[in-house]
Amino acid sequence: MTPDKPADLVLTGGPIATMDAVRSWATALAVRGGRIVAVGPDAAVAAHIGQTTRVIELRGRMVTPGFGDAHVHPVHGGLARLRCELHESRGLDTYLEIVEAYARANPDVAWIHGGGWSMDDFPGGVPSRRDLDRVSPDRPVFLASRDGHSAWVNTKALEIAGITARTVDPVDGRFDRESDGSPGGGVQEGAQSIIEQFLPDTTAEELEAALALAQTYLHSLGITTWQDAIVRPEEEERAYLALAGRDELTAKVVGALWWERDRGVEQIDELVDRRAATAIGRYRPTSVKLMMDGVLENFTGTMLEPYLDASGKATGNRGISMIEPSVLGAALPRLDALGFQAHFHAIGDRAVRESLDAVAAARRANGPSDTRPHISHIQVIHPDDIGRFRELGVVANAQPYWAAHEDQMDHLTIPFLGPERASWQYPFRSLLDAGAMLAMGSDWSVSTPDPLAEMELAVNRVADYDRGRPRPAFLPEQRIGLLDALAAFTMGTAYVNHQEQDTGSIEVGKAADLAVLDRDLFDRTAGAIGETRCVATFVDGVAVYEDAALDG
Ligand SMILES: [Zn+2]
User: Fold this and answer.
1) Does a cis peptide bond (omega within 30 degrees of 0) precede residue 179?
2) Cα of 69 to ligand 1 centre, how many Å?
3) pLDDT band at 551 (very low <50, low <70, confident <90, very high)
């Protein structure tokens, strides 16, 4: 039977991972008016081809649903790429080459501002102002480290900020010093803000340009939907409203509105107003971000039992609850009753438990709801809490790129947790086995936003940059299968974003949100999972990224 109207687009002749409920496979699909109108074998879909149909011969290239990122900071990542960007480079010489080239290409910027350097590229983790002085003697330089906990500045920046040998360190940070006490160029934690106040303010134009750049980049990786993990009124929100207002937001975005930790439940009315006033186009601010703790490497992750010291003895420090449990216990039932989703940041086992306890309080107050609370990062989960994810309907929002032996894990985390708690990290297999729903994301710009690189880590638990090196897999019993990882990056994220009726799988009636990959992801002779490249991305049937070779 021939359909009434020809399809706009047909993809044929390649494996299609539909990610429907039985995870069925097809070889062809047809799209009309932005929706999928047929999925099946080539012969069955061929009837949809008419004179006006664009036909893409896959020739073995694989199609998956467009990827979702359940926890990402695109404006921040885009700003990093607009500025002096070091995230994807390694080594002092390379950093200096990039700074020099950036300075030459941007003669009019007052400050050379950027970041992404890694501590392991410097002796003792501490960079020197003198290296930067060689490439920028006259203009101030401020470069944040990859994790944002420190900065690298030149002499000019220190002069402008008035930092000298006599400057006293602030209570929440430190200036690294040379032997005579003069500032050396490394700036730790809260001391950064003393210099940052001299940086020019980020303009609305920069925020918009950053989001547009990030969107282009994320589309090039096959990403069609995401949850922005921190939306603040004067920053990310402005960028989304501008792009969505001009109909230039091609990604489908849920915004997680930032919960101000120094305020209480009185801020909920403002969140309700912002949700109503700022939902435009493909942007929906229906989530609230609750940052429960810090990170383990500097002992600000919140733990049930104290951290150990370097000799393995218990300290008095269990981290601090960044949101008072009593405030959280009052806020969560109200947010849930108002239809807000809770998006928790929880790294330590106590932060995870306090998040689950808050959801339990909301369930007791309101009964079951469809707000789909989720906990991101989930680095350490006490075994007693694994089953509670399913019981409470809490989605596990994992960042698999961190589940590997690397220097930060081996030297700054495992020794201070001790062997038992170190084995509770990133328990993705245990969560799935306990029936938990799993979504995945990158936390870009902290880590690469490439979902394929992240899936490789979820499957192997060996860092992709360590391929071929003899580092063991990290807790290999917590590896998950590639189909489960792909589901977490497609239907899992669609579910978290309340979009599973529209996207997340390739089924008739759903939006044609698609990623075309350069090879069959499941062909294990085709190289590492993370070496796979996206060659085209479609949102609602429209190409938002396309490699020149697609039709070839
Ligand atoms: Zn984040």
Assistant:
1) no
2) 11
3) confident
